[in-house]
Amino acid sequence: MKLRSLLNGVEIIGTNAELDADIETVASDSRKADIGGMFICISGRNRDGHQFIDEAVDRGASVVVAERTDKIPEGVKFVLTPDTRLAEAIIYNNFYGDPTADMTVIAVTGTNGKTSVAFMLRDIFEASGKKTGLISTVETSCGDISYDLCGGSSVVGADGAMTTPDPEYFYGVIGKMKEAGAEALIFEASSHALALRKIDPVSIDVAVFTNLSEEHLDFHGNMENYFQAKARLAELSKYSVINSDDSYMRRLAHTSEKSNAITCSADDGSISADATALRVKMNGVRGIEYIYFSRRAVFNLNCPIPGKFTVCNTLLAATAALCAGIPAECVRNALASIKGVRGRLEKLNFEFEVPFTVIIDYAHTPAALETLLETLRALRSPEQKLTVLFGCGGDRDRSKRRKMGAVASRLADFVIVTGDNSRSEDVRDITEEIARGVDREKPHAVINDRESAIRYAIENAVENEIVVLAGKGHEVYEINECGKRPFDERKIVTDALKKRFLE
Q1: Would you tell me which CATH number, out of the four given (3.30.470.30, 3.40.1190.10, 3.40.640.10, 3.40.50.300), belongs to the domain 104-336?
Q2: What digits encode the pLDDT tens for the residues 19-72?
Q3: Which residues of 49-82 are buried (b: 16+ CB within 10 A; e: fewer)?
Q4: Could you tell me if 43 and 50 are in contact, meaning their C-beta atoms sit under 8 angstroms apart?
Q5: Residue 428 CB partners (closer than 8 Å, separation 6+)
Q6: 150 versus 256: which is more confidently predicted?
Q7: C-alpha torsion 213→214→216→217, nearest 10
Q8: 413 forms bridges with which residues in the sheet?
Q9: What torsion, rounded to 10 degrees, do the Cα atoms 272, 277, 279, 281 define?
Q10: 346-501: CATH class
């Protein structure tokens, strides 16, 4: 591809390169630089790509995209731009032929519920006959094709699966989806990706905003910065479907510079929202039902996934789909037959009879844990004991640890505090911080090793008990000071059950 075409849309403040030169490859990792290729210098939180220009040039890179010239060797062709992160997104989008240009694109963002809403939308679009690509925390797929780009079910980086992959993988996989015949794309947009402008070149038709609660403050610094990062998605999209029951999202609806915000309220009988859920019925483990009401459509909506949060998720998914032109009948039928998402309120099934219930969920914030436990409390019978096992990630926002401990001890009958991707931190320091929020007068245990904690929970569970393993959800790995290792909670649970009941 010609350099001129690759740089289409990039702000150039200086260059000595020949714009009609042919560029064979693009890399922002100097180790991937190749002969006749481009190297983009990214200034990261820990490393500065400008420090690796010599390595990239030694590997054959013929042009360097940079923010400054002090590290560029004499005679090397360069392109200067004020923001190489934005340039990287634009360049990769150009390199893969602007793959979303002719697709219907929906981006889902928020603290909790992104994955569930994304899966619902994927199923709705597929039910309408549109081949649909999905990029989510849980999987990256298009129709029957699953993309395993970097050794995991999704794109995997140093810390595991990334909600929104880096531009190299993000635009590359969308290009593959388009080649496979994708007409639509549903993807989760993380606050990191929005803040770092990774998805700026995407042609987004509808943005969905689920909610906002405390998370990623280690990156954003405070809730206002976190909110502003999420709010950028509204400016990148033609329409915004917003959960107006959430105070931050309600603020977004009122302050967005665009007037094309569509508000949704799961507050039965709300007259202030554009789309509402009327006559909501919670049918226990059989799911939920309500009357979907908006100017676009009115119909009975049923979904087999239980919980109050499902009312909000289905309302947002249905409204976004209708906004994108999907017929109401397809929306209704798809949501009525949808299956659960792996690691989201996932009830484990076994080949032999087990006298209690084991549930795995991704809840890893105070708000998500609270919603999960409140849902299970509403579903359980009076005699059922509720046990929750959870931890908090290391090298991440510490302020939520004590809060999660308080939520767990308030809503569960028994709390097991344990590890969860401790990374470089000592897991004992993390669990100690969590335990400070736990009511010491209520039953609880601190078991630092997560596998040991899971085995303890299974070995001591009583008849009809509900055991919830929170925090890891779909993840099948654990990260500690030694790095990343395989860790499948489902296998650990099954092994513990076999030992208890079959041996």
Answers
A1: 3.40.1190.10
A2: 999 999 999 999 999 999 999 999 877 789 999 999 999 999 999 999 999 989
A3: bbebbeebbebebbbbbbbeeebbeeebbbbbbe
A4: yes
A5: 448
A6: 256
A7: 140
A8: none
A9: -140
A10: alpha beta
Q: How far apart are the C-alpha atoms of 490 and 422, rounded to whole Å?
A: 20
Nearest one of 286, 227, 280, 219 to 254, comparing CA atoms: 227
In the chain, list all ranges with CATH 3.40.1390.10: 3-95
Burial 189-213 (b: 16+ CB within 10 A, else e): bbbebbbbbbbbbbbbbbbbbbbbb
End-to-end CA distance of the chain: 63
pLDDT in tens, 12-33: 999 999 999 999 999 999 999 9
CATH code reported for the domain at 3-95:
3.40.1390.10
Position 336 pLDDT exceeds 70:
yes
Query: What are the start and end residues of each CATH 3.40.1190.10 domain in the chain?
Result: 104-336
Q: Is the confidence at residue 160, as pLDDT, over 60?
A: no
| Strand, coil or helix: 439 | coil
In the chain, ranges of CATH 3.90.190.20 domains: 346-501
